[in-house]
Amino acid sequence: MSPTPSSVDNPALQGPAFQRLPPWVKAKLSPLAIEKIQAVYDWVENECIPREQIMKAQLEGRRWTTPPLMHELREKAKERGLFNLFLPNHFAESPGLTNLEYSCCAEIMGRCYWAAQTMNCHAPETGNIELLAKYCTPEQKKKWLQPLLDGTAASAYSMTEPDVASSDATQIGISVRREGDEYVINGRKLYGNCLWNKELSFYILMGCSDPNHPNKWSRHTTLIVPCNTPGITQVRNLTIMGYDHAPEGHGEYRYDNVRVPAENVILGEGRAFEIAQGRLGPGRIHHCMRLIGQTERAYELALLRCNDPRKKPRGKLIGEFDSNIERIAQMRLELDAMRLVVLNAADTMDLHGNKAGKRAIAQSKILVPEVACKIIDECMQIYGGQGLTQHTPLPEMWTYARFVRVADGPDAAHRHQVGREEMKSAEAFRKRHQAYQDQYKKLAEQYGEKYISFD
Q1: How many CB atoms lie within 10 A of CB 418?
Q2: pLDDT-derived band of residue 454, with 50, 70 and 90 as boundaries?
Q3: Spatial separation of the C-alpha atoms in residues 82 and 116, rounded to whole Å
């Protein structure tokens, strides 16, 4: 679909909520999407960002209790129809947006770290909800999915382990052994939201149910583990670069003879990798979408610092030094490039499905966190010493971006995937370049020129 004057010049698309979107994206936005994107922008700008310090204040002394403000905002967002916007329109439970349309919303959500949670569009809930919607039976959906959609329950995804290489999920070793109508779980896990927050309802856990299966991709099973099941112990909170990320946080867990009913298995025994790939496709780029919004806000802070009349080293504004002018230009170029990569991934998923979009998804997962880290680092540099302190949100922004380089798989694994696929294309290029050489040889004879080979 090519952009038309009527779609791109629509007055509803002229405001700041749409200013960074390329014309081809604006042309694909439905009336519903335009309405939701504007509503999300108004919500984040007017309801979330002005309350950031209130949220921090309500966490002081109550680190592992969800602040009353979060509950208040979630109720309001739900009333305004801003809940679960991430769920693609091919699901019956979806509010009706495509992946591309939601990516425009998610970028705006990223401007405030916890804004997505007010709209039930935060990790790990987004991936878990899509997983349950895609793979669960009607009975399981009623019991586990609907409370998540309603915002009355909370979940976490439990995959990473401390005793194996986290970049190779086939090594996941926590034991999931069937005994009659139950599965018994024994082992250790890392990450997954903190049990200390009593609002956490259940884990979606990936474990090894058949360690001797000849196909290593069929050894694992995914099942739902209620958080109040006896035998689960949280050993400690895991800080991320010094931040505890309360009130959800991350943890280290021990499972000692944890028993769950067999009906809690999702899709079937041995099908965990099928589920994991279905979950991680969209979820991987949700982080990237939000990171762009976060990085845009960091960029805005850098612009403010560059033009602060109180800050004049050697009598010049910080933004008047050539090095900083070039810094700002490079940030703008890289931000816009990141956005195009993510929008392409979202559009590819819409047009061809998550599996066909895996390369574009991997490209987003590699590029965006790394470039976001780099840009935010430059913004901190422009702020000098203050940029490393709580005077700005920049250190927290950088930490989140650095975390996403590892979350949902380390970027090295995604680079390997992309590089391996690219290597497969070499043979076709070899044939093409040989054809150039063969044609050149014939032309050299035709024109009476000497044929030169560099083989």
Answers
A1: 17
A2: confident
A3: 10
